[in-house]
């Protein structure tokens, strides 16, 4: 069950991602939603005092070394900031306050979540590998796992297609709506 950047037995893999925080008192107001620009740069407000969080995923051929979680500050200066400033002219004068790096959760088999009981380990239920969709899918995934644990079956949504069978059978789940 290998994939790009993984060993043959690795299913879940992470790629480093940088998140930057900045201050811009003249930036978008409180009604500004989480925004993902067509260039891939994204940002959201962070509180009430003109603070923001954001970043951008690199192109696949420029993925950073997964063994190094140090932040590439030049990446913000050269790639992210120009895109943000084109989208929001007030960001021309932003001041970076901090940054951090972490791993992007990635299911190397088919980039979809794996949900349900493990096929070989009794009493182990998993909800992992949603490849960046975890926050969006967490309410449904949490309810599904709770139903499996309490009732022994899905009741609200039938999520069997996200189960382990597709991995064991080597049949990736392809998203048609992306």
From TrEMBL:
Gene3D superfamilies: D-Amino Acid Oxidase, subunit A, domain 2, FAD/NAD(P)-binding domain. Keywords: Oxidoreductase. Residues 29-148 form the FAD dependent oxidoreductase domain. The keyword Cytoplasm does not apply. GO terms for molecular function: oxidoreductase activity. One of its GO terms (cellular component) is mitochondrion. GO terms for biological process: mitochondrial respiratory chain complex I assembly. SUPFAM superfamilies: FAD/NAD(P)-binding domain. The keyword Oxidoreductase applies. InterPro entries: FAD-dep_OxRdtase, FAD/NAD-bd_sf. Required for the assembly of the mitochondrial membrane respiratory chain NADH dehydrogenase (Complex I). Involved in mid-late stages of complex I assembly. This is FAD-dependent oxidoreductase domain-containing protein 1. The lineage of its organism: Eukaryota, Metazoa, Chordata, Craniata, Vertebrata. The gene is Foxred1.
